[in-house]
Amino acid sequence: CGRGPGGCRGGRTDMALRCAASLAAGRQPRGPRREGTVRWSSAAKASAVKINEKASREKILTLESMNPQVKAVEYAVRGPIVLKAGEIEKELRKGIKKPFTEVIKANIGDAQAMGQRPITFLRQVVALCTYPNLLDSPSFPEDAKKRARRILQGCGGNSLGSYTASQGINCIREDVASYIERRDGGVPADPDNIYLTTGASDGISAILKILISGGGKSRTGVMIPIPQYPLYSAAISELDAIQVNYYLDEENCWALNVNELRRALNEAKAYCNPKVLCIINPGNPTGQVQSRKCIEDVIHFAWEEKLFLLADEVYQDNVYSEGCQFHSFKKILYEMGPEYYNNVELASFHSTSKGYMGECGYRGGYMEVINLHPEIKGQLVKLLSVRLCPPVSGQAAMDIVVNPPVPGEESYAQFIKEKESVLNNLAKKAKLTEDMFNKIPGVHCNPLQGAMYAFPRIFIPSKAIEEAKAHKMAPDMFYCMKLLEETGICVVPGSGFGQREGTYHFRMTILPPVEKLKILLEKVKDFHIKFLEKHA
């Protein structure tokens, strides 16, 4: 500090703090200008350390002072089991020996991380939008250039790097509306009811934010399926709403039963105000595809009970089982007649992340919201404007999902070949997974009708349940942790999605390549048999 130890003891506080900082950094403070090294007395050092301790005040943000709603949030898909998988990967890179050579992350539906190739046409259009100089290149097809020019014309300064309207680029919203009309056999869609989003999750969270209100017994209740995708329980916790569980029927291929909806609703009315009903179709993690009759029953129930419907339809392209077909809630609602179509409030969601595209990283998505009160529409746009706009590259990717090449265009043949290859491959893997799981003693897997996950029920012996309790773990978390540690396979315990008391499951994606998936399933089989023998 230029004044030596005596200067710190008798000088100004700021100089003392600088001396303390020098000590903390392991540096010797400068003393008077003389030959030799300045030595601090032990008393001077103690004084400096004491000052430094006083300077380090308590943190403002601690676990006790943080937002309790955020602390209550849980997201099993990237929870403790995934953190453990990351630790094991680091150990493998350091050369620490394990009974396996790699961690297989079958915990999340990230198609391209599992080796799925991107759709060429989608990447071409996004590349052209990102670097418009490529529009002069003969390496790109004209139909891709045409779409890229149209998207860029909708951007400020003809650049993907500019902000867009909060609701999204207008021409892309028009393309989404046209897609919905084609998909639903001519049911009209208004671009003004389309909101481009940062993946489907962003839209779901936004709608829940404006729906949740009240306090005490009038606090909004949100009905969600069990098992559910943990985004819903996480958003409900964050917003301090009331989660109302309704159980899917595992014995009937995870079907949705309106009597179960009614039970859940009537019980919830005693402690909250249920006004939102969430449906995931095709199901995640359960893979069921709703029948037309089931959707009609749900819509009638929502109309009768005055519930706002949320239809999570991000897996609408992922339907594999014969006799199953995707029906959008919007289409069925329209066909049920004006009494329903003009009154039931419905928000539907789609994304670039799933389907045949697997473009998770672009974070592209949209929601269509119908029968919204005009004043609430303004409030929704205001809420969305706080985050300015969704990623513009994600908006461009979403445009190709809803506006792909059509017969007669030069890219059509390659596009349809790639799309059908992905979907046929997924159908093959869905059947393979179901069959192999059902050959394992103590495991039962319902048909994987759609989506991209298996959710098998597993038998866990009472001895293993007691051991799990001793480790303060849910039994299926204990099972999944052992599976990870002994095989390197990372799956998510069913307790992270919700399940009936006394039943145990795990969710596993079917996305790995077929040969790798076979190896994975064989490893699960061997592990499960050994697990049963050990804990018999």
From TrEMBL:
Q: Which GO terms describe its biological process?
A: L-alanine catabolic process
What Gene Ontology cellular-component terms does the record carry? cytoplasm
Recorded catalytic activity of this chain's protein: L-alanine + 2-oxoglutarate = pyruvate + L-glutamate
Aminotransferase class I/classII large domain location = 124-523
- Describe which pathway this protein belongs to, using the record's wording: Amino-acid degradation; L-alanine degradation via transaminase pathway; pyruvate from L-alanine: step 1/1
Which InterPro entries does the UniProt record give? Answer: ALAT1/2-like (IPR045088), Aminotransferase_I/II_large (IPR004839), PyrdxlP-dep_Trfase (IPR015424), PyrdxlP-dep_Trfase_major (IPR015421), PyrdxlP-dep_Trfase_small (IPR015422)
Q: Name one GO molecular function term.
A: L-alanine:2-oxoglutarate aminotransferase activity
Keywords, comma-separated and alphabetical = Aminotransferase, Pyridoxal phosphate, Transferase
The answer to whether UniProt assigns keyword Transferase to this entry is yes
As recorded in UniProt, its EC number(s) are 2.6.1.2
Matching Gene3D superfamilies, A to Z?
1.10.287.1970, Aspartate Aminotransferase, domain 1, Type I PLP-dependent aspartate aminotransferase-like (Major domain)
Cofactor(s) listed in the protein's UniProt record: pyridoxal 5'-phosphate
PANTHER family given in the database record: ALANINE AMINOTRANSFERASE, ALANINE AMINOTRANSFERASE 2
Subunit structure of this chain's protein: Homodimer.
Q: Function of this protein?
A: Catalyzes the reversible transamination between alanine and 2-oxoglutarate to form pyruvate and glutamate.
Task: Describe the family membership recorded for this protein in Swiss-Prot or TrEMBL.
Answer: Belongs to the class-I pyridoxal-phosphate-dependent aminotransferase family. Alanine aminotransferase subfamily.
This chain's protein is named: alanine transaminase
UniProt lineage: Eukaryota, Metazoa, Chordata, Craniata, Vertebrata
Q: Which gene encodes it?
A: Gpt2
